[in-house]
Amino acid sequence: MLPVTVEFSGGAELLCGNVKKHDVELPKSQSKWQIRNLLVWIKDNLIQERPELFLLGDTVRPGILVLINDADWELMGELDYELQEKDRIVFISTLHGG
Length: 98
Known about the structure:
- This protein has one domain (2-93): Ubiquitin-like (UB roll) (Roll), CATH 3.10.20.30.
- The strands form two sheets. The chain has a five-stranded mixed β-sheet with strand order 2-1-7-5-6, with no helix packed on it. A two-stranded antiparallel ribbon has the order 3-4.
- By secondary structure, it is mainly β.
- The protein is 11% helix and 32% strand.
- The N and C termini lie far apart (41 Å).
């Protein structure tokens, strides 16, 4: 198992039953866990409604900031980042309805 923390804020938590913080244990995998695999796992296990507001194709929708251990995921390799034990992945929606 790979323990990581997944957090949602800025309105993204509404897609997960209004729960902001999730301490999860990702199952053992033949290959290393990458953010691309985590996004599919989140869609299947955490998102409770309207996954199209979170994902677009195989990545997060524009307007969702992704932080890996408080660093912008663009600096970490985005979808190819290999998850490490106790990583903290944060999804922050920067879009707000009016």
